[in-house]
Amino acid sequence: MFYHALVLNCTLKKSPEISHTEALIRKVTELMEPLGVEAEILRPVDYSICFGVSSDEGEGDQWPQILNKVKAADILIIGTNLRQLTEHVRDNG
User: Fold this and answer.
1) Which of 79, 5, 11 shows the shortest CA–CA distance to 45?
2) Three-state SS string across the chain, please?
3) Apex CA 32: angle with CA 24 and CA 65, to 5°?
4) Any residues with CB less than 8 A from the CB of 46 and at least 6 apart, and which?
5) Can you give the pLDDT at residue 37?
6) What per-residue confidence (pLDDT) applies to 91?
7) How far is CA 79 from the centre of its chain?
């Protein structure tokens, strides 16, 4: 049996720019591979995602493509860079 993991690499760097977040994600996916987990890594920054509150904001919105992958995945992992996380914690207590 195998599982499909979708990993959202929420770096601010577009592909193919080097991402330290992706380096860490790749270590995690390598550990999951022998356990029967096939991982797909996706960078949302490479897509045109429209602002809004619906699952499809209309023409040009590529979020529905990502959402379909999220729904189809057995495992969802969200990776973000530490700077974003530490600034959020610092600013919000």
Assistant:
1) 11
2) CCEEEEEEECCCCCCCCCCHHHHHHHHHHHHHHHHCEEEEEECHHHCCCCCCCCCCCCCCCCHHHHHHHHHHCCEEEEECCHHHHHHHHHHHC
3) 75
4) 14, 15
5) 98
6) 82
7) 6
The whole-model pTM stands at 0.84
Q: Which amino acid is at 37?
A: V
CA distances from 57 to 1, 10, 53, 61 (A): 36, 20, 8, 6
Query: CB atoms < 10 A from the CB of 5, how many?
Result: 18
Residue 92 has what pLDDT? 80
What's the CA angle centered on 64, arms 49 and 18, to 5 degrees?
Answer: 50
